[in-house]
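Q: Here's a chain of 187 amino acids. Please give me its 3D structure as tokens.
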Amino acid sequence: MKPFAKTLAACAAALALPVFGASYTVDKDHTQPSFEFSHMGISLWRGKFTRVSGKINYDAQAKTGDVNVVVQTASIEYGLKSMNEAAVGSDWLNTENFPTMVYQGTMKFEGDKPVAVEGRLTLLGVSNPLTLKINSLKCIPHPLYRKEYCGADAEGDLDRADYGMKLFSGNGMGKMHLRIQVEALKD
């Protein structure tokens, strides 16, 4: 084997090894938390946030991990201008006074598998417990950056009235389903 081919093979082998105790930066271009909620009990509204940052620490060997995701609330996107405008106003997200929403939590494992993040969501200055079920978590060598790259899908339920958004939240109408699809690159 030629020296360059040996070096390339060694690099490829090193990238395939699992990384333990690593810190990852959330990939803002591939992370868009989404949500859905009932619209008058007759249909579902869906939306997403398009500006996100954060850090994830993950150690598969030690079975530990923590998550810190910061969402710019003004980046809400329903695909309908009037809904976007209403959502950033004082009756809903009040983005002028509360420009961010933060989710922080600790990963829980069953055996070797991370199954949930037990944490807190802070929205409109109110912080409440929120557990997100981890549906999937996978790490691969990123083909361009040559670093470990992880992706996960997690979901949970909340009631927006618990965060002060009481307008049209009676009779269970404030219940929301939150999903955080995240990708992150090893630092």
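Q: Can you summarize the key feature?
A: Confidence is low (pLDDT under 50) at residues 1-19.
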